[in-house]
Amino acid sequence: MAERVVFVEPTGSFSNVFAYYMTIPMLGPLVLGTIAEQAGYDVAILNENLLRRHIRPEELADVDILCVSSMTATVERGKEIARQYRALRQAAGKPARAIIGGIHASMIPDDVTADFDQVFVGEAETKILDVLRERIRDKIVYGERAADLDAAPIPNFKLLKNWKKVHYWPILTSRGCPYDCTFCSVTQMFGRGYRTKSVERVMEEVRACETGWIFFVDDHFVVNKKRTRAILQAMRREKIHKDWSCQLRAEVSRDEELVREMRSTGCRTVYIGLESINPASLIEINKKQTVDDIRDSVRIFKQNAINVHGMFMFGSDSDRPDVFRHTSDFCRRSGLTSVQYLILTPLPGTVLYRKIEEEGRLLHRDWRYYDAMHVVFQPKQLTPIELQQGMIECFSDFYTYAGAVNESINLVYESCRALVRRLWEKAYFPSVAPMVVKVFGRPIVKSWIRFNRPYLEYLSTMRR
């Protein structure tokens, strides 16, 4: 009988206000699970975010090898699952093997060695079978950066329990990022070298998405505009009619022809790390963009009927108390479809983490709160609670029922305009997304505040 291998993506604390808005499974467990399945293992993938619950004991009792993939914010839950699994197997008199990989284990492997038999550092595709077959028995296994991304199999989503509930299908077309923002761990994990899949392979994965919305999960989908155009042209040539989204940088909008091509092939939303409207903060985090770049980008994408999800971070050394009011005003006036306000977080492995640690400004190392939604370090010009409350107030200011009413009025007006324009030219009808996110965003923010009240009380005891 084939050995039973279960890959797990743990959930974190109830922290991300968008957790119920869009759940996208990580590709690591899917790719590694597919490799194991093709090698003859009996494979299942359990994603607690998709399950909307914790893994049950009976789902671990018959597992021969447990493989956990976690980020910093989910690693404590990953350790808990490993301990539960080991106790169940011990009680049944059966052997247990637990392996962990992912960004957190790769950055600080010593943090997880007590709970796992083996720790994968870096990319695991080329060595996962050697580890499962015990050809490699090292406690810490150093992976290799894949030179040929086409060599990995197309993920088998049907290995994922509750796979039919996936509405946003992740496709990764590249790894690495040529930029070097101080807060980002991408370059530490995947390098600054930009590795890509072939256009033909990308199209195979696009065709494999049976239903739903495609999300290109590259850290920056348009690093190479020529390659991006080739993908868009292939989608148009094959008459792929699927809605899709991607992550990119603000300067992409300087090429308006490319923006129009994106819209014509089904791009509905772009996710942009706008980060800050404080020019000093943009310099501090090495973002290499200006506030004018941000403003122009939002305008151009909106003019081309592409929704913009803007992500902002608070807490840089140059941020003062007025940054919240200025950012909130900017977001209301700019026409952003949705916003995600984050706390600048010193994630292990980043330049920022080393800086904050050396300065003795970490409040704690309770990794559950390293999710960019909780303050975990001492800011320079704010108290921890001022920083936390400022983020909450910005959320509350953007996601309002009054805002939803205004968006509904604007939706009717813009729909009428588009209907008239279609008499003589191509025109896109406006999206309902701005109205919907404001309706559902408000109660989610309130739930987050209620759940995290003890942490807010803890922060209120901290002084500058």
**Overall average residue pLDDT:** 89
Specify the number of helices: 17
Oligomerization category of the chains in this entry? single chain
Derived from helix and strand composition plus strand pairing, the structural class reads alpha/beta
Helix content: 25-40%
Largest beta sheet: strand ordering: 2-1-3-4-5-6
Per DSSP E runs of 2 or more residues, the count of β-strands stands at: 14
Sketch the major β-sheet.
6 strands, parallel
Unreliable residue stretches:
none
| Cα gyration radius (Å) | 23 Å
Tell me the span between the first and last alpha carbons. 60 Å
Characterize the overall form.
globular
Indicate the proportion of strand residues: 5-15%
